[in-house]
Every structure is written in structure tokens, then in C-alpha cells.
Amino acid sequence: MMRPMMVLSLENLPKRKRGEVVFKFESFCESGYPTRFTGLSFRENIGTLLGFGTAELTGAHGEAKFWSFQLELNRHPPTFVKLVIVEEDVKKSSCRQCHFCRFIGWGEHLICNKRFHFVLPRKETAIHASRLFIEMHNQKQHLMHGVVHLNGFGHLLSINGFSGGSEFVSGHQLLDFWDRICLALCVRKISLSDNAKKDNMYLRLLYGVAYGKTWFNQWGYGFARPNYAVTYEMYSQSIGTLKSFPLQLLVPQLACQSREIPFIVAKYQAISSQRLVTLGELFKFMLEFKSRLPCNSLAPMDYSGIISENTSRWSAKRVEMAARVIVEALKRSELRWVTRQEVRDTARAYIGDTGLLDFVLKSLGNHVVGNYIVRRMVNPVTKVLEYCLEDLSSVLPPNVNGNNGRMRVRLQMTRVQVIRDLSHLYRQIFGESGQGLLHANETLSVVPVAARMVMDTKHFVKDYHSQGVEQKIMEVAYHDYVNLNCTIRVKIGAKDSTTKQLPSFENVIISKNATVGELKLEVQRCFREIYLGLNNFMVESIVGFEGLDSYLVYDSINLKSSVIIQGSIEQTDITSILEGSNDIVVKCACGARDEDGERLVCCDICEVWQHTRCFGVSDTDEVPHVFLCNRCENDIVSLDPINF
């Protein structure tokens, strides 16, 4: 079911050219940078943007063109990423239809002539330039991958910040970057499937409990359509249930699963200046408390603490001995920076297991051992990892051991510890361990049910058209032009057997002195330019207008209402030019009646599709070779036996 829309390879993408324009990543596509985009539609503005890019290569069969933009992330040290924009000729593409449109509910849209891919390749791909693939289903291939159809509807396919393997740019920066591009180019709507994770926690559930909304809601993305027939009302109610669930009911049951839970909750109750009553308040405080801690905060621990913070195949006694040897070696360096190799060589005189030494050296960085802090950093000149001991008294405040117990707790907390506590809570409540809540009692059983509904809500959409175009339309009105929202009603075939009206409208700009005939020609040109199946579209009339073509549009047509243009095409099969046309029938036990992007299986008798999960097949299990739905299976069982 999940076919790639396009698979292209860019061989030997060149490195930065001498004299090539470099744009600032943080301000790219802000107002006036690199230019002021004056068009009212994506199809007008994308050409303007490409004019500032560097033309690269074309596809092997002319199916795509490429432009690149060098973007500066940091000046010191110099860090660059490359934005690649791919113009895909859909007519020459191996897969014309967009299954992402079908999953989000845009299956009734006509197929566009072009699609534009916006790709930030990973650093290693851009540097080595071995192969760069544009694969719609591969979410780990790029730092960012979005696609926009020529009509302005598009999809954000992947964002991979620090948690996804990025070295220099965060997910938040990538979303800001993508949002600026969409707003500047006047896209209409962008969809996404929210599978964002951080530290093995799904953000749609974590942020839903903490803030009552998805992580992507910070950029205006809202509920689009259900997965597994979970409606918006069901989703909102589930979010509210989890966010307001009392801790005094939850913690006693969780304590039976993990003895750490009461201590974790009590610890953050002690740190917080306000009493944490609900699960939402606890998660929100932990997330905000983590964000206030410095990234390089200390991690107080003794030698045995290395075992508790890392998985180790060595005993605690051996780890402690190796750590003691390394610290003593650093003491003899008289608090100067020494290379990792020097420390390792000195320690090998006492510890023969080099694997153990490597493990302890990796674990000791930026930790407190006794009265010293083990510092670790990469030498900016030699690029070699170095270690140093720093006297603890020179770092901590003088009153660290005073009577303020809450301050002592804060000083001992690190981001790593908060993430570890949060992950443990997440696993115990929402992981496999949390399934025990289903059978605890009627009150607690609502938690896993609500969590499942939140997890089943993945499709979100942002409407950019209402945000960025309104001001530009007002600016156009001050000049000698008028903007009309036009759509078409198409008659299919010579016998007018089928009539279809497009679900969306296009902005058509004409002079205030334009005639009705000129409006018809402009609408005909516009829709032919955008949509693949309308290359022979012929305008015939304007619905509700019975005057002559020589009449002025300004005097004859209501400019405040949408204009419907009647026309015809020679195409005989309307489904072949739609984004979501398919002949499958979905009828699942959960209530789903169309594709939602989840895995489906087809009954071998009635050929009706349903979710594998709803049939009891996990997403990690293979689909059975022979599958019968419950209705067909019951029909077979009810048949009279055949007597031979």
C-alpha cells in the first residue's frame, strides 16, 4: 500500500562553489529575504525563489530539475547546510498519484502537473555526495523533507533534529525554517503525520498530557482527520482525561509496578514551588524544569554511580577501580588538559582491560568525583578529545551546603536525570507495564484507553491560506487589479455523462477593465497550467452569468463571492486524474470507511479491507497469507457440511 511517489538519485552533488551566494538559515524566507514574494499563490512565488538558487542537475529522463541553496547555520565555527529544491514533472513520474493526499482526505483533488520537494540532506550525504534519494516513505533519510503540489497543498514528510541524528540543528529550528518557507511562498495547507519521538517518548502523547495539544501545535497544526475512526471529540476528551487525572489515584497503583515511582513524584513535588496534583501538572513541570537546566550541568555521582547511569557488562567493583585509576592519573597532570590517549596509556599500567577503560572514560565526562569535576571536551585546534580535573570549590556556590534543601535538590539535578525520570514515568504509565492499569479498577482503566486514542490521532493540518494571503489580497485591491476565487465544474466526455466540481478554489488576478471573455481565457490558462488532467480543458460559461463576453467583469460579476466556471474535457475516466482514486473498499470493525495510512489487509473472499491491528495482528507481525474477515468466516462456518 505504501509506494514511494518518486525515487531519484543525485549523483555527485557539488560542494559549495566559489562565489556562490550564502543565505542565513535563521532568517531564510523571512519578509524581504532573499526577496519580497508578491504573488498570491504558491505557483507564482516558487519561480521567484528558484531564481535565487543554483541550478544543479536534471533527472535521467527529464522527470526532475534541481536547485540548491547554501545556508549558514553558524559563523563560528563555520557550519553550513544545503537546501535542495526538486521540481518533479508528474507526467513523467513513475507514480502520479499522491497517497499522502489520499490519507489526509484530499483524494478528490486533481493531480497537479508538478510537485516541489524541499530537502535538507544530512551532512554526510551532502559532503560525500555518494547518493541523495528523495523517497517519500523514508523518514530518516534527511534532516527535513517536505513536498508541495503546484496548487499549494503539501505535506511535511520528515523532521529529524537532534533526537533524529542531527549534529547542528534542532527540530524546533527545522520547523521554524519550514514554516517560514510555507508562509513566504503562500502555500495553502500542509499536512503531516505526527510520529515525532524524543528519548523514545512519542511527543503527541507526552505534550498532549502536559499541554493538552500536540508538539506541532506550536506552529499552528491542528486535528485533520481520524485514524482508526477516532473523532476530534474522542481525541479532545482523551487528552482532557489524561491531563487532569489525579496523581493520588495513579501513584499507588504504579508503585506496585515500580518502587521508583513514588520517589520520583515526591522528588519533583519537593522541587516545585506549587503542589502538583494531576498527571498533566507533573509532566508539564518536568518538561519546563528540564528546559531551565543548563545543557552542561553537573552530574554528581560517585564511582559506583557510573553503573547506575549506564548499562555495563563489568562489575561495580571493577568499574570503581578503573575510575579511581583514571582520576588519580588526571590528578598527577596538575589540573592541566591531557589527551584521552595519554590518560588511557597511563591507566593501562594498572588496568589491562582496554574495553573497561574506554567505557569508564566515556562515562566520566562532566561528572563529579569526590572533590573534583571530570571535564571532557574536544580541543578546537587539534580536534582531539581531552580531559581535565577541576576543583569543585571553584564551581559551586559558597552556600551550596546551606539549609535550603530545595536548592540542594536543584543543584543535584541534571537534564539527563530529568529525562530518565520522565522516561520511566512514561514507560510505566503508557508502555507495556501500563497495560496493567486496564485490570486495576474501573477508574484507572480509562488511562490506557485514553492514551490509545491519543496515539491513534496522527493526522494534523495547518491552513496557511488564511494566515498569509489575506494581506496580499488587500494590497492587490489598491491597484488596478481584482482577485477572484475561481473554481471549475467539469463535464467529462462528449455526452456529458459525468460532471465534477473541484473542491478547492484558485486565485485568479485580472485587470479591473477586463471583460468576461478575458476572465474565461485566464481561468482556462490557469487551470491548464496547474492540473495534469486539464490540459485540454475548454471554458464554456460562468455559472449564474448570462451576459455577453464583452461585458466588464467589474460590473457584471459579484467580486465578493466565488466564481464557478463551467467547462469540459475529453477525459472519459475522472478517477484517473484524481489524487486519491482507487477501487478498494474499507470497512473495518473500528468504524473506518476509507484509508487513513494505517496498515490494511484484504479479505480473500469479499475483498473488503480492514486494519490489521483491529483484526488482532500486530504491526510487527506479518500479514497472514490467507485472510478471511469475520463475516466471511462466519458465513463459511454456517454452511451445511458436504456429505460424500
UniProtKB/TrEMBL annotation:
Pfam families: PHD, Ubiquitin_At1g33420, WHD_plant_repro
Gene3D superfamilies from the UniProt entry: Zinc/RING finger domain, C3HC4 (zinc finger)
Keyword Hydrolase: no
GO molecular function, one term: zinc ion binding
Keywords carried by this UniProt record: Metal-binding, Transcription, Transcription regulation, Zinc, Zinc-finger
PROSITE patterns registered for this protein in UniProt: UPF0054, ZF_PHD_1
The UniProt record lists the keyword Metal-binding: yes
Domain (Zinc finger PHD-type) ranges: 587-633
InterPro entries registered for this protein in UniProt: MS1-like_ubiquitin, WHD_PTC1, YbeY_CS, Zinc_finger_PHD-type_CS, Znf_FYVE_PHD, Znf_MS1-like, Znf_PHD, Znf_PHD-finger
Family annotation (PANTHER family): PHD FINGER PROTEIN MALE MEIOCYTE DEATH 1-RELATED, PHD FINGER PROTEIN MALE STERILITY 1
Protein name per the record: Zinc finger PHD-type domain-containing protein
Source organism: Rhynchospora pubera
